[in-house]
Amino acid sequence: MMAMDAVNDRWGRGSVKVGSSKIGDAPRDWGMKQERKTPGYTTVWDDMPVAKA
Questions:
Q1: 16: Cβ contacts below 8 Å, ≥ 6 apart
Q2: Rounded distance, CA 5 to CA 15, Å?
Q3: Helix, strand, or coil here: 48?
Q4: What is the signed CA dihedral for 24, 31, 48, 51, rounded to 10 degrees?
Q5: Cα–Cα distance for residue pair 29/24, rounded to 1 Å
Q6: What gap in Å lies between CA 25 and CA 2, rounded to an integer?
Q7: CB distance 22 to 31 below 8 Å
Q8: What is the CA radius of gyration of the chain?
Q9: How far apart are CA 24 and CA 9, in angstroms?
Q10: Does residue 39 contact residue 33 with C-beta atoms inside 8 Å?
Q11: Of 5, 14, 41, 43, which has the most beta carbons under 10 Å away?
Q12: What is the per-residue pLDDT across 9-41, written as a single tens digit (0 to 9) for each?
């Protein structure tokens, strides 16, 4: 955030924004893919998918 604040101070407010924020009044055309999210994705560790190489 300090780096973002420094860039915005130098180049003007809104020069750099967080990637998850929307741009102006336009709605976002994308969203998080949720088809693989488990119902207890924050509480049940056994439901978390495991990636193996």
A1: 4, 7, 8
A2: 10
A3: coil
A4: -100
A5: 13
A6: 26
A7: no
A8: 18
A9: 19
A10: no
A11: 41
A12: 999 988 888 876 666 666 667 677 777 766 665
